[in-house]
Amino acid sequence: MELEMIIMNIINYSGEARSLCMEGISYAKKGDINAARINIEKANEKIGCAHKSQTKLIQLEAQGEKQKFSLLLVHAQDHLMNAITTRDMALEFIDLYELVYNSSMVKGDRVNA
């Protein structure tokens, strides 16, 4: 696979993962914790695909096939790191919303999202 295609795969999968994470937070905010966690699972799959593409580049370089500097590759790496960070934070938000909703149910309070 040529370099540009690998880079675009990283950008595409990472962007999809980030969007799924943000949507997951939105679901959790509305109280739909199950849908939120499903989105995170989908995001994990996309991050896994991006990571596989990244690994191809690393393996090529480890085998001596050096790549020229590419601003697009730096951009792709930024997208992947951002997606991973967003996923990690989304998991924390989902856990927090779950706690809020569960404690509200116990107290009999109504939570407005």
UniProtKB/TrEMBL annotation:
Q: Where is the signal peptide?
A: none
Q: Which GO terms describe its molecular function?
A: metal ion binding; transferase activity
Q: Which domain of life is it from?
A: Bacteria
Requisite cofactors: Mg(2+)
The entry marks the following residues as binding Mg(2+), namely: D78
Carrying Phosphohistidine, the residues are H75
**Pfam families, per this entry?**
PTS_IIA
Stored InterPro entries:
PTS_IIA_lac/cel (IPR003188), PTS_IIA_lac/cel_sf (IPR036542)
Bound cofactor: record note? Binds 1 Mg(2+) ion per trimer.
Q: Name one GO biological process term.
A: phosphoenolpyruvate-dependent sugar phosphotransferase system
Which keywords label this protein?
Magnesium, Metal-binding, Phosphotransferase system, Sugar transport, Transferase, Transport
Q: Which residues of this protein are catalytic?
A: H75
The record's annotation in PROSITE patterns points to:
PTS_EIIA_TYPE_3
UniProt keyword annotation of Metal-binding present: yes
Name-wise, this protein is PTS system, cellobiose-specific IIA component
